[in-house]
Amino acid sequence: MQNLTTIQNILTDHLSKYDEIQLVFLFGSTASEHHSKESDIDIAILFQIEPDFYYLDDIKDSLSKLIKKQIDIVILNNASPIIKMQILKNGIPLIRRGRSYEEFFTRTVAEYVDLKIVRKEIEDHILKGRQYA
Question: Which of 28, 47, 53, 64 has the most CB atoms in a 10 Å sphere around its CB?
Answer without folding.
Answer: 28
